Amino acid sequence: MTLAVITPSYRNDWPLFVDLHQSVLRHTPESVKHYVIVPNADVQLFSQAAGPRCIIIAEETLYPRHYRPAPAANRILHLLPRIPLSARVAALNIKRPFHPVRGWVMQQALKMEACRRIAADITLMLDSDVVLIRPVTQATLSNEGRPRLYRLPGAVGVHLPQHMQWHVVSRKLLGLPPPDFPAPDYVSSFTVWDPYILRALLARIELVTSEHWMDAVTAQRNFSEWTIYGVFADELMKDRIGSAAESSLCHSYWGVIPLNAASAEEFVAGTGQNDVAILIQSKSRTPIAVRRAALSSFRGETYHALASEPGWGGEPDSGAGTAELHPGDRSVGMARRPGNPD
Q1: Residue 230: domain span
Q2: Long-range contacts of 64-68 (CB under 8 A, 24+ apart)
Q3: Residue 332 lies in a domain
Q4: 252-272: string of b/e by CB count within 10 Å (b at 16+)?
């Protein structure tokens, strides 16, 4: 089976991405390519990492034809009081011009679109704040010879109201009955997707909603790509996933309080023997130096960061590492109807 890694990122996450990408190079086979999706304005920065195993993709090349980039909207947005600098309008859907597509929702949709297009048997979806710490191969990501599905039974209840809403939205988009709680949790920043299942999922959304799947997804105020894939695979594609796994393989810190040197080292020291990745959520605002020091202390291993700043001295492959994924045949695995344009 062939494996590809997909990461959506942007300028603010550059230092985190640099560390992630180095870990991908160190801990995955040489045949594995890392596809990185960034706004067109950030392509030049990320191209410093471009090469035979790092493919930089401008996110705008993945938009349907009725989506338009929105640089002017962002300039206005950042003039408004109380709007964080990380807030971003990714695009305008000309079918819904008064409902701009938010950056974090677009990132989720672009993961799905990239997985749909990439020719691989398994895709590993990694956010920029993840680092691999042990070897990852196709076998690592398989269960009973099939791409593994992370599923933690009964983990979503009233103590996780946002997760509950993700289940409600996912099942509505899939045309399934409302969820019963407690429900399984599928959320992990170390997520394995089967492109075959993903294409069938997009076809299902289009069949249920009678619109382009990306329109249906980006119209949601609450959405989780992890949850909708998990619900679909778990309930409608069981023959493709085998038995689900209760280990995410990723030791994760989801807190919003910054870690200091002592707490970060303590957290990393708690990594399980079967974990192959560590997440320290970027929203925790943990300083990059603290992250790197803690990772360096992991089990006595030496962690080498490629850089802390742009211009780390990589060897861009003269643009050969940048690409626009070919749209392919949208009729393959997609429910297309007359009069439903791209």
Answers
A1: 143-186+197-248
A2: 64/212, 64/214, 64/215, 64/342, 65/341, 65/342, 66/93, 66/94, 66/95, 66/212, 66/341, 66/342, 67/91, 67/92, 67/93, 67/94, 67/101, 67/214, 68/92, 68/94
A3: no
A4: bbeeeeebeeebbbebbeebe
Residue 282 belongs to a domain: no
Least Cα distance to 194 among 249, 232, 224, 152 occurs for 232
Strand partners, 190: 126
Q: Would you say how long the chain is, in residues?
A: 342
What digits encode the pLDDT tens for the residues 278-313? 999 999 999 999 999 999 887 555 555 444 434 443
Contact, 1 vs 29, CB < 8 A?
Answer: no
Q: Can you tell me the distance from the alpha carbon of 15 to that of 128, in angstroms, rounded to the nearest whole number?
A: 9
Amino acid making up residue 94: I
pLDDT > 90: what percent of the chain?
Answer: 73
- Strand, coil or helix: 296: helix
- Residue 23 inside a domain? The answer is no
pLDDT digits (tens, 9 = 90+) for 23-42: 999 999 999 999 999 999 99
Cα–Cα separations (whole angstroms), residue 126 to 15, 281, 326: 15, 12, 22
Confidence bin at 333 (pLDDT 50/70/90): very low
Domains identified in the chain, total number: 1
pLDDT of residue 243: 79
Can you say how many angstroms the Cα of residue 114 is from the centroid of all Cα atoms in its chain? 10
**What is the rounded distance in angstroms from the CA atom of residue 99 to the CA atom of residue 119?**
33
List C-alpha distances in Å: 78 to 72, 90, 153.
Answer: 10, 13, 41
Query: Whole-angstrom Cα distance, residue 71 to residue 92?
Result: 10
